[in-house]
From TrEMBL:
EC numbers, comma separated: 3.1.3.-
Descriptive protein name: Histidine phosphatase family protein
Residue spans crossing the bilayer: none
Domain of life, per lineage: Bacteria
Pfam family, one: His_Phos_1
GO molecular function, one term: hydrolase activity
Organism: Bifidobacterium kimbladii
Length: 218
């Protein structure tokens, strides 16, 4: 029975000393700790069975995911070359991008325009069904579209997809519960973590979901 596994990796910590909700804004890059997180995950993936047999690498086009992808490939590609395989180049796919958010550019903590100001509370009263931008259902739908295309294009393969917390968890929650709505404070998608989803290539049925947090100690 052919099955494809997609390894969703969340980007590492971002350098954001002003606590800005950066969403899709340009110019937000991995911090030194974020790079160390991704390096830990890269070592984990390079040593994991089957990782050198990856068939394709996809990434959100934002700065922090591009940088995460580059660090991962710095570990994965040499292992591939040592075994006679071609190095991989990333494909940037907007279906993996961070969720749209009307609060982009605002500070999360104190100050003018802070996320938790009383004037903004009407937008965050229901954390399971956010009204501040792209819905969880929209997010899960675009990630699902990406997954179905990848399974068709890469049957019986191992795939790497670098994305963000909300897209990864919204899609996983949909698969596990039948709906993508959730409390964003209860997500299990740590920075630089790996969520691996295996699907039957013929039926699209989910055969397994595993989770690893190789950067937990960084």
């Amino acid at each position: 029975m052919p099955a494809t596994t997609i390894h969703f990796v969340r980007h590492g910590q971002v350098d954001n000393p002003d606590h800005i909700l950066y969403e899709r804004l340009p110019g937000f890059h991995l911090s030194a700790r974020g790079r160390a997180m991704v390096e830990a995950t890269a070592r984990f993936m390079a040593e994991a069975p089957g990782m050198r047999d990856l068939e394709a690498v996809y990434s959100s086009p934002l700065d922090r995911t591009r940088e995460t992808t580059a660090i991962l490939l710095e570990q994965i590609n040499p292992a591939r070359v040592q075994h006679g395989l071609e190095p991989l180049e990333p494909v940037y796919d907007r279906r993996l991008i961070e969720a749209g958010n009307e609060f982009r550019g605002k500070r999360i903590g104190r100050g003018q325009g802070a996320l938790w100001r009383p004037s903004n509370l009407r937008l965050i009263l229901d954390l399971r069904r956010p009204s501040w931008g792209e819905s969880y259902r929209q997010i899960a739908r675009r990630v699902g579209d990406f997954v179905r295309q990848v399974v068709r294009s890469h049957p019986d393969a191992q795939i790497l997809a670098v994305s963000h917390e909300s897209p990864i968890w919204s899609y996983r929650h949909l698969l596990e519960t039948g709906h993508p709505e959730h409390n964003m404070f209860l997500r299990a998608t740590a920075l630089a973590s790996v969520t691996s989803i295996t699907l039957d290539c013929e039926t699209g049925k989910v055969l397994g979901i595993t989770y690893a947090d190789p950067a937990a100690g960084v």
